[in-house]
């Protein structure tokens, strides 16, 4: 949300609505960042499984399924982020 600081409203109720909207947007961004971090950890785990020691590796089908799930999750998160 872009706010023109030079043209803030004088009305207290309007200012409170702006603050609530900013707080909600910030909470949404925190949730999205937490989800992105979780997905990055999954990616690192999959990379270790794919490129790690022979005993730790996933077969190609397991890796493909995991990557498809990650792509779906990432697309969902990106769609929920506010446009800048």
Q: Could you describe the 3D structure shown?
A:
With 84 residues, the chain is mainly alpha-helical. It has one domain (11-80). Helices cover 73% and strands 0% of the residues. The protein contains two helices and no strands. It has helices at residues 12-51, 60-80. Helix 1 (12-51) packs antiparallel against helix 2. The radius of gyration is 20 Å and the shape is rod-shaped. The protein starts with 11 loop residues before the first helix and ends with a helix. The mean pLDDT is 82.
The succession of helices and strands, N to C, reads: HH
Helix content: over 70%
Percent range for β-strand residues: under 5%
Termini separation comes to: 8 Å
Rg of Cα set: 20 Å
The shape is rod-shaped
Structural class: mainly alpha
Would you identify the regions where 5 or more consecutive residues have pLDDT less than 50?
none
